C-alpha cells in the first residue's frame, strides 16, 4: 500500500471548485430559457494580453456551440446530442451528459467582445479573449 502525502490546500481548492459549480448550476437554471442538462468543465488562465479558457465538450459538434460576451461574463451555450436512441431496458450507470448546456464565466479582466477567437479540436473548445488595456 502506497502512502500519499495529504495536501490540505489541494483539498480546499477542490472544495472551492465544487462549491463554485454548485452555485453556477443553481443560478444558471433561473437565467436560461431552456432546461440545462449539464455544465461543461473549464480551465481558465490569464496572460498579460489575454484571458484563455479551455472547455471540455467531447461529442459536441462545433456548429452546436455558441459563444458570447455580455458585461464581462462569457456565455458558452449549445447542445450535445445523445449518440443513441431511446433505451428500452433498465439503466445501470448513466454518467455521460447530453442535451442543452450552458456555462457562464465571470472574466477576471475587461475584454473586447469583438475580438473573441475560438477553435474546437479533440472535444476541447479553446477560447481566447484579448484584454482591454
What does this protein structure show overall?
With 133 residues, this protein is of the alpha+beta class. The protein contains 1 helix and 7 strands. It has one helix at 8-31, and strands at residues 42-46, 50-56, 65-70, 73-80, 99-106, 111-121, 124-131. A hairpin with a 2-residue loop joins strand 3 (65-70) and strand 4 (73-80). The longest helix is centred in the first third of the chain and has 24 residues, at 8-31.
Q: Helix-strand pattern, N to C? A: HEEEEEEE
Rg is 17 Å
Strand neighbour order, sheet with most strands: 1-2-7-6
| Mean pLDDT level | 86
The helix/strand class is: alpha+beta
Give the helix proportion (percent range): 10-25%
DSSP helix count?
A: 1
Unreliable parts: none
Instruction: Give the strand tally.
Output: 7
Itemize the secondary structure elements and their pairings.
Blueprint (H helix, E strand, L loop, with lengths): L7 H24 L10 E5 L3 E7 L8 E6 L2 E8 L18 E8 L4 E11 L2 E8 L2
Antiparallel strand pairs: 1-2, 2-7, 3-4, 4-5, 6-7
Provide a brief overview of the structure:
18% of the residues lie in helices and 40% in strands.
List key phrases describing it.
single chain; about 130 residues; alpha+beta; four-stranded antiparallel β-sheet; three-stranded antiparallel β-sheet; 1 helix
